[in-house]
Amino acid sequence: MRQTPHLFAALVALGLGAISLLAREIMLIHLERATVASSAPETFSLKNQGLAFQRAGAYAQNVLPIYGSSELLVPASPYRGNNFFRTAPTGFQLSPVGGGGTTPLIMLQKIGALGSSLRGKKLAISLSPNWFFATKPGWQAYAGNFSPMAATEMIFGSALDFDLKREIAARMLECPSTLEERPLLKFALSRLASGGWIDRIVFYALWPAGKAQSLLFELQDHLAALDYIRRQKKPFPRLHAETVDWPELIAKASKARPSDAGRIQNAPAFDRQIPPGSRDAAFKNGIDTSPAWIDLELLLRGLASAHAQPLILSMPVPGDFYDHAGVSRSARNDYYAKLRALVERYHFPVVEFEAHDEDPAFLIRHASHLTAKGWVYYDRALDDFFHRRLPRG
């Protein structure tokens, strides 16, 4: 009986501590949302690897998140999406999330982690065609973009159902290097991937530990976000509306294309004549067997489960490069057709810019990077989508 007052005091102290932490978190979330106009257009590691700034963008009505790879970072052009929409000239800012080597499986983990924050939220997904041609893509880029926080929140969150998590877990276990120092996550993924009823029970038994890990990640993320906001010295962009003349912008951007846009690199490799279409079979085999299609479908299922409203964008295949490489236009059309068929099964809008397959002014060299002209077309499609118009390619 004598211990009762001490136990009561301990419970009160714990309760007050929990209330204090909750109040602090609420204040930090308020600060993140209040400064979203400044953070949304920027690309930085904390935004990409954490969730605080992504969540702030998801809750902002005048912010359109876009998930992609290195195309979101180049070139240093005023037409690049985050620069063009920085002052919300048409009523919204574009918030890029991603970096070099970001893959659909990485995007999926972020989408699954954000979960209910994306319900009814418009967002865009930018795809690189070359992902879907490789029969055995390396895991180095995936490992370099892996976010333990996003993966943990996705696996122990409630946005995705068990069967979808099981398929995702099987894919994630194919890159064991990302899990070497994360025994809880690795064990949970193994139980998920197994799918047996005993493993399912074990996974649910791990749920409290997983949620505790997620809460710790979340607290660290909010504190890092606070430090970032305090250190930022850039003034808030002054948001103002403008009238955008898209045909005029396209004409202007076409003249401003970089001198190496569209130029075939490594020209000596093409000194010998490669018969047109001679490599169609190998190219089509890549399209048929690339595991990137598995990851893309998992991503689409994740978007549907989160009840998000995505626009799927794909840069065009660099047709001039593949013409020289012996891959015909008819073979490349298989990519566009397969992409459309897959995305349309989920009733999401898709723009693949197929008409620019052989446009040397659309991509920088033969890489999956947009020129100024390419970005204006992307910008127009994003603007159409945000304002509920049919996105143009």
What this model shows, in words?
The chain is globular. The protein is 53% helix and 7% strand. It is α/β, with parallel strands linked by helices and 393 residues long. The model is unreliable at 265-270 (pLDDT under 50). Strand 1, helix 5 and strand 2 (93-98) form a beta-alpha-beta unit. The protein has one domain (29-266, 291-355). The chain has a five-stranded parallel beta sheet, sandwiched between helices.
Roughly what is the average pLDDT, rounded to an integer? 91
Structure summary, number of beta strands:
5
Distance between the termini: 76 Å
> With helices defined by DSSP (H or I, 4 residues minimum), what is the helix count?
17
> Which blocks of ≥5 consecutive residues have pLDDT under 50?
265-270
C-alpha Rg (nearest Å): 23 Å
Helix/strand class: alpha/beta
**What is the chains' assembly state?**
single chain
Largest pleated sheet: 5 strands, parallel
* Number of structurally distinct domains: 1
- Helicity, as a percent range: 40-55%
General form:
globular
Summarize the helix and strand pattern as letters: HHHHEHEHEHHHHHHHHEHHEH
Give the strand order of the largest sheet, numbering strands 1, 2, ... along the chain.
2-1-3-4-5
Beta-strand content bin: 5-15%
Which key features would you list for this structure?
five-stranded parallel beta sheet, 17 helices, alpha/beta, globular, 53% helix, 393 residues, 5 strands, single chain
